[in-house]
Every structure is written in C-alpha cells, then in structure tokens.
Design goal:
By secondary structure, this protein is mainly α. It contains 17 helices and two strands. It has one domain.
C-alpha cells in the first residue's frame, strides 16, 4: 500500500505505474498466447472467430468495468482521507453488486450470443466458433470479475505489485493449459511425449484455459487480500447499504455508459472489418491483440493518475494534481511514440507470430502503417481522462468519450471505409483521426476546470 498524499510525485508515479504496466503487459501476453495458440494450432479462420467474438464480450462486460472504476475512485479517496468506516462500506457493497451483475450479464450474454454475432455481421463460416468462444468466456465471467475487483481495490490503496504477481501466475497457467485444451493432447518438448487425453476442444479450449486461470487467480487474490493489515481495519460486512449502493451507481453509471460507447464503437469497427472478409477480420484481430501491449502500458499511466489524483483530492492536496498530470503526459506520449516505432519497424515479424498467411500479414502491415502513430494521442488522452476520473467526475469523462466516439471516430471510420477507395485502410486511418480529435476534446475539458467542481463523494 502506498500513500500518495506526501513525497515525490515523480517517484510515486514511476514506482506505482511500473508494476501496473507490467500487469497490463502480462494481460496482453495472456491474450497474445491465446491468439497465437489458436492461429498456429487451428488456423486463420479460428483466429478470425476469436477476433470477432472479443469486441462482443467487451461490450457485454462494460457495466462491470464502470463498477470497477467507481470502486477504485471510492477506495482511493476514502483511503486518502483515512476514512476506514467508509472504506468498509465501499468494499462490501461494491463486491456484492459486481458479483450479482456478473451473473446476470453472463446468463443474458450466453442467451443472446448468436444474435449479437449476427448483428455484427460475423461471417457465417466462423460464426459457430465465435459463439463457442463467447459461451465459455461468459460462463466464467464471475471469476474474471473477482480478479478484476481485487485488482481495482488494491490499485486504489496504492498496491500494484500484488496484481502483477498474480498475473504472472495466470500467464504460466495459460501457457500450460491452452495448447492442451485446444488440441486435447499433452505434449512435452524434448521428451517425445505426445499423449491424447481427450477430444480437441478447439477455440472453446482456448476460452476454457482463460476461465481456469482466472478462477485460480481469484483464489490466490482472496488469500493475499485477507492478510493485509489495512483490511483488518476496513472489514467486510455482507449487509447491503442502499446509500452506498446509490453512491457507487452515481459514479459507475457514467463510466459504464462510457465503456458501452467504447465497446459499441469497437463492435462497429469489427463489423466494418467483417465486411471485407475473414482475412481482414483475422488481420484486425492480430493488430488488436498487438495493440493491447501499447494500450495497457498507456492504461497503466492513466490508472496511476486516477489513483494518485483520487488520494490527493481526498486529502485536499490539490496542488499535487497538476504536477501529476505533467509527468503523466510526458511518460504516456513517450510510450505511445515508442510503440508506434516498434510496430512500424517490425510489422511482418509481429504478424508472423500469429499466422503465416500472406494476405493477413499484408493487411496487418497496412494497419500499423495507418494507425500506429495514434498511440501518441491515445496516451495523452488517457492522462486527461485519469485526472478527471480521479476527481470523481465520471460524468465529465463520459461526455468527453461520447463526443469523440459518436461524433468523430466512428463516423470518420465508416466514411473512409465505405465511401473512399481506401477500403479497410480507410478504417485504419479513421482510428488515427478519431484518436487525435479525442485528445484535443479532452484537453479542452481539462482546461475548462469543470472537473474540479465535482460534488464531494465522501459525504455520507
């Protein structure tokens, strides 16, 4: 646990964000391993099937993401103000609320999976595999919720090391389980051992390995969590506090709507990619998985800013907020530039980790040429968003995201993909235009200072 209300902001940002970054990178590796096993062991159609399913899954869990953000904000501000009674209420009610919603979303998501894939124009040849993948992932959604909830709480109190360690465990489990569950075989390199254990599960096996790793991670989180000294002061009381639930929802609904808009935009993007056939769908899936490395590094800076800002606002240390943003912008833009350079220098090598198909590799290369540079703006955008969220102004954050995605990015992507000879390259270019437009909108809102006027959220 770390107190961000005193000491060097730069030191706090670096020491806190590095484990977050490591955790984010490992999450990206987690997804990359799944995609690599699917692409190499089954084929490009299976890779396209998983690529088509992921945005739909993201859309369904958007509400839980908003609750996670609300929990992090409330935990950070209550910890910064040393209000342990309030913290106890936040922990108990946010967990019960998130658990119940995860179960409901899983049931409805599985029931509607076929319709969702139809709406997003998923090619018929890969639709059964996409639905199989979605069903298994959603069936284990509760386990993913528990691990994400624990991670968000620990981030709120300044502990980014524990999530990093547990993610390392998840990676190891996924490396071992995924190929076995996909192929139904146990293969041990250098020994010649290749034993058939059961019938191949295909893409469902890839999803099942993720669910099992999440379940084990949730158990490890529980035992790590219960021994922390802080949570002897802020104990769980499994009794609903409707005032606290209302407070959580007031913070969560703008963040949830925001994530629904983001994921809805993602569904439109994958639907546009689907229009150009399975090869482009597979290419977008490869690029999307790779982008998670750049995105998670940048997300870690934004999450760090949210945690640091929320604690300092809770302690009424407003002068430290501007300094936090300044350092965050520097690091995030630098990371975005580094990522853009890497994917533009090594696009073919990156694509070949997933597939050897020349058409898919060529499309991946074009994607990085057009959209790689967008990560510079993406990094700056999430710094402004991190400060606004840390202040508890999730409604302002919602307005910023909605204006960008609804009025700029999605229409531009559609117009360039459907109305110009650029076709799929127009789609990739639209992502870049939308990101930099969003950066400018976020900057204008931050400069307006409206996020400073947010109503105090620690009042009972």
């Amino acid at each position: 646990m770390r107190d961000f209300t005193k000491g060097s902001i730069l030191k706090h940002l670096v020491l806190f964000s590095l484990p977050l970054m490591g955790t984010g990178m490992l999450q990206a590796v987690f997804g990359l391993i799944d995609a690599m096993w699917v692409g190499q062991l089954i084929g490009k159609d299976a890779l396209a099937a998983v690529s088509a399913a992921m945005p739909a899954i993201f859309f369904l869990v958007a509400l839980l993401m908003g609750l996670g953000m609300a929990t992090t904000i409330l935990v950070g501000q209550s910890y910064g103000s040393k209000n342990y009674e309030f913290l106890s209420k936040v922990l108990s009610n946010s967990f019960m609320l998130s658990f119940a919603l995860a179960a409901v979303i899983a049931v409805f998501g599985i029931a509607l999976s076929a319709k969702i894939l139809e709406i997003t124009n998923t090619p018929l040849s890969i639709r059964p595999m996409s639905q199989s993948f979605m069903t298994v992932i959603l069936g284990g959604l509760v386990f993913s919720l528990i691990t994400n909830w624990f991670s968000g709480v620990l981030n709120g109190v300044g502990d980014s090391k524990t999530p990093f360690r547990i993610m390392c465990l998840n990676i190891v489990l996924n490396i071992i389980l995924a190929p076995v569950l996909i192929t139904g075989k146990l293969y041990i390199p250098w020994t010649g051992i290749d034993i058939r254990l059961f019938n191949a599960l295909g893409v469902a096996g890839s999803a099942l390995s993720t669910v099992i790793a999440s379940a084990i991670g949730a158990i490890v989180y529980y035992f790590s969590f219960r021994h922390l000294h802080l949570f002897q002061k802020a104990k769980f009381h499994f009794k609903l506090d409707y005032g606290m639930i209302k407070k959580i929802f007031m913070l969560a609904w703008p963040a949830s709507v925001q994530m629904i808009i983001v994921s809805g935009s993602g569904l439109i993007i994958v639907a546009l990619a689907n229009n150009f056939g399975p090869d482009i769908t597979a290419a977008y899936g490869v690029a999307f998985r790779t982008d998670q490395f750049g995105a998670t590094a940048i997300f870690s800076i934004g999450i760090a800013l949210t945690s640091i800002v929320s604690q300092n606002i809770g302690a009424k240390q407003y002068d430290r907020v501007k300094e936090t943003l300044r350092y965050g912008l520097f690091f995030a833009a630098g990371l975005g530039l580094l990522y853009a350079a890497i994917v533009n220098i090594f696009p073919v090598q990156i694509a070949r980790m997933y597939t050897n198909d020349p058409v898919v590799i060529s499309a991946v290369t074009s994607y990085f040429r057009y959209s790689g540079i967008s990560f510079v703006g993406f990094g700056m955008m999430f710094c402004y968003l991190g400060v606004v969220r840390g202040a508890g102004d999730t409604l302002g954050a919602l307005a910023m995201v909605a204006l960008n995605l609804i009025l700029v990015r999605t229409p531009v992507c559609y117009a360039l993909a459907e109305w110009t000879p650029l076709k799929e390259n127009g789609l990739w270019l639209g992502l870049t235009v939308g990101t930099f437009a969003g950066t400018f909108l976020y900057y204008l809102y931050y400069k307006s200072g409206k996020w400073k006027n947010n109503k105090k959220i620690l009042e009972n």
